[in-house]
């Protein structure tokens, strides 16, 4: 109702609940069965509400940084999740801390047209990944882009103050003819001036898109 009243389209929803209750960890007090049940409920109601894409984090505590976790991720999605994406006509975009080659391996193993990658340019810069290799590796799977700036091995900072190479990233996205969503997932205002900061970030981003 609020989206209609304010003419704000519902496109992406982020499932950060799984950073607090990791799907690939068994010792957080919740059973795998209950987490899968919660995931399926969220998928259903996200679709009913009108969202088109789910950003699912595979990072921090919800990482798959071992062969065992990688296999567990593939099994959970194949056995329990993928059919729901088809039924409710909604995509999942994985936002990960993995290298682009492992992201590509994951998408190839899951082999489903409702699965994509969300490229977070700030996170990628913080991990020290080369943007050219990253974007070229996942080009065929790229579903959405988070606009963010972070310091190398550090935190999120205002756009232009970190290690994200905006000229290079936007040039590469243009080369692969990316035409999906750009999402401002930027540093918040330190003094509560969030609307003004977002306007500044919008201007900053628009010059690259033009």
Explain how this protein is built.
With 210 residues, this protein is α/β, with parallel strands linked by helices. The chain contains nine helices and eight strands. The strands form two sheets. The chain has a six-stranded parallel sheet with strand order 1-2-3-4-5-8. A two-stranded antiparallel ribbon has the order 6-7. A hairpin with a 5-residue loop joins strand 6 and strand 7 (156-157). It is globular, with a radius of gyration of 17 Å. The mean pLDDT is 95.
Mean pLDDT: 95
Helix content class: 40-55%
The multimeric state of the shown protein is single chain
Rg estimate, integer Å = 17 Å
> Main β-sheet: number of strands, strand sense, barrel status?
6 strands, parallel
Strand-pairing-aware structural class: alpha/beta
First CA to last CA: what distance? 33 Å
Number of separate strands: 8
State the shape.
globular
Number of helices: 9
- Secondary-structure element series: HEHHEHEHEHHEEEHEH
Question: What percent strand?
Answer: 15-25%
Low-confidence parts, pLDDT < 50 over ≥5 residues?
Answer: none
Strand order of the largest sheet: 1-2-3-4-5-8
């Amino acid at each position: 109702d609020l989206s209609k009243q304010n003419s704000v389209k519902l496109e992406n929803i982020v499932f950060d609940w799984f950073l607090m209750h990791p799907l690939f960890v068994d010792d957080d007090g919740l059973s795998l069965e209950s987490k899968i049940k919660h995931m399926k409920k969220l998928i259903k109601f996200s679709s009913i509400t009108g969202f088109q894409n789910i950003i699912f984090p595979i990072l921090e505590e919800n990482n798959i940084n071992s062969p065992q976790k990688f296999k567990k991720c593939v099994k959970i999605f194949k056995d329990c999740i993928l059919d729901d994406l088809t039924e409710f006509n909604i995509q999942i975009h994985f936002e990960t801390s993995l290298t682009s080659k492992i992201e590509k391996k994951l998408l190839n193993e899951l082999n489903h047209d409702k699965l994509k990658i969300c490229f977070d340019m700030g996170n990628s810069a913080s991990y020290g990944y080369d943007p050219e290799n990253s974007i070229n590796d996942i080009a065929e799977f790229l579903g959405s882009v988070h606009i963010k700036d972070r310091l190398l091995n550090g935190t999120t900072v205002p756009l232009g103050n970190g290690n994200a190479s905006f000229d290079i990233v936007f040039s590469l996205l243009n080369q692969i003819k990316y035409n999906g969503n750009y999402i401002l997932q930027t540093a918040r205002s330190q003094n509560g001036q969030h609307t003004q900061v977002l306007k500044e970030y919008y201007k900053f981003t628009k010059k690259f898109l033009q």
